[in-house]
Amino acid sequence: MLVRLEIRDFAVISNIVFEPGKGLNVISGETGAGKSLIVDAIGLILGAKASRNLIRTGSPSAFAEAVFDCSDLNDSDFKKIIEDNGIEDDDGMLIISRTVYDSGKSVARVNGTGVTNAVLKQISSMLVDIHGQHDTQAIFDESTHVKLLDRFSGSKCVDLHSDYVKKLQEFKDLVLRIKEISSSPDYLERRREYLEFAVNEIEEAGFKDGEEEELHDTKKRLSQNEVLFESLKNAADLLNAEDSYQSPVQSVNQAGRELLKASQNDESLKDIAERANAIALDLDALASDVDKVLSDRNYDEGLKERTEQRIGLLYELKAKYGASITDINRFAADSKIELDAIEKNKDILQDLKKQRNVKEKELLDIAENLSSMRKDYAKKLEKAITKELADLEMPDAVFEVSFIRREKAKFFSMSGIDDIAFRFSANPGQEVRPLSTIVSGGEASRIMLAVKNVLSKVDLIPTLIFDEIDTGVSGKASLAIANKLKAIASAHQVLCVTHTAQIAAASDRGFVLTKTVVSGNTETVCTVLDGRSKVSEVSRLLSGSDSASSLRLAEDLINSLKT
Questions:
Q1: Counting CB atoms within 10 angstroms of each CB, which of 27, 76, 259, 308 has the fewest?
Q2: What integer pLDDT is reported at residue 255 of this predicted model?
Q3: What SS3 class is residue 17?
């Protein structure tokens, strides 16, 4: 979850630190105080487009930094992204920063490591889900509905759709080859040349299953041994002094002999002569031991280079023929079969058409299974969202997921064989219509909140942000939204920008942004609300005053929303 946000020189914000906690965090304040700038700053950190217009007047850059506690995030895909991009794990803490310069360029870092905006979006999409006015409009786009339905299924529809897309690509490849052969007389000759080249290249490389792992292990071992070998070689050279007049061993031996000769005339030197002789023997043994270890290691200086070259060759073949050695060799085997067919003058076109029919049947089977599974989850989604809407003071609302089978000429789309769209009716007696026909902002907000709440129960995303989800609603509907946000906050950290007293009253932690003018410059200040100041802020949102009656009403509202 988000534990700290620091914003500097960002629009009207000079410097604020925002520290949300678990549960429902509500941000309120007067219009123009900069409430939505906090959401904009988080959006920037999460990969939103950078603009020099974000920079505070007179400053060279704008800066935003968020600290996330990811210690409870058990998502293998998230961990893989972190590892693949060389980002160090700091005891489960993730610090994401982004600086926007006056040139319009920006720099993003995660735990101090520079990352591209694409990587930033990958990481952030698993940490935070922001719902703003743009998202309310996005739900009107029917192309997003099938994705929302698949998300609701967890991994089931998502995985089956992935299989469908793979089968669809295989089918399209066959259709394209049939088209090429039919329209190009020399296609088979060009195809034959390509396949022969591919088979020769793969067979000449001669990669075996499991070799890739062996190559990487060898490279790692050689990198470690290179340092070891260099140290051993330096030690042997120093002991044997190959480039000097005589080695240290020879020098100590000679010194020992001279001392022994001197001790014949002076008995007191005998002990020193014996010590010199012992050192010479130890030094000689040491040099022999080092030479033996060096010989046993048998380090091949060219092996590392040959290993790296072979790894490079494997990467080239993987880019051309398959994601693994198994795939590459299978490509060669399939190519041989096709070459054999070409050489025997078989009717390639007829054979491909037969393959196309088989692929089409396989594709249709998986598409029908996907359609059936989606229909099952659509019924569950209809029931779940209808219940959510009833909780949000729309008891007569009807929510449906429509399935329209595509025309045969456009049967297989990337999403499947059905056009899927959400339909809605707010009042009894009204027919269900596309969401795009909804005029009321309050209805749109509540539908979006219902969808978010349903999806939040299957999503792993720890932090949800709502920017003015209460647009167009008041009274009982606002109270219902407040209760719904509290329900979501029981399983997720929720941040909500609001102008509604009911939502501010429901907060577990409240913040108010105020705008002041200091020395002619506009400053925004973020204040954490305590018990008394929270009552005052809710009172302001209720009536615009802090009269005794308004304060009592605010306190009653806060108490009624406590769990």
A1: 76
A2: 67
A3: strand
Predicted confidence at residue 417, as pLDDT, reads 92
Say if residues 7 and 38 touch (Cβ distance below 8 Å): yes
Tokens 């108010």 — which residue? 512
Q: Summarize pLDDT for 289-326 with one digit per residue, the tens.
A: 767 766 656 556 677 788 889 999 999 999 999 889 99
Residue 111 token pair: 């735990």
Can you tell me the distance from the alpha carbon of 338 to that of 358, in angstroms, rounded to the nearest whole number? 17
Please state, in angstroms and rounded to a whole number, the distance separating the CA atoms of residues 492 and 510.
16
> What count of Cα atoms within 13 Å lies in the side-chain half-sphere of residue 395?
1
* Burial class (CB within 10 angstroms; exposed 0-12, middle 13-18, buried 19+) of 187: middle
d(CA 55, CA 477): 37
What residue ranges of the chain have pLDDT lower than 50? none
* Alpha-carbon gap, residue 483 to 476, rounded angstroms: 11
3-state secondary structure 297-362: HCCCHHHHHHHHHHHHHHHHHHHHHCCCHHHHHHHHHHHHHHHHHHHCCCCHHHHHHHHHHHHHHH
Residue from 455, 523, 469, 379 nearest 16 by CA:
523
Q: What angle do CA 158, 321, 162 make, to 5 degrees?
A: 5
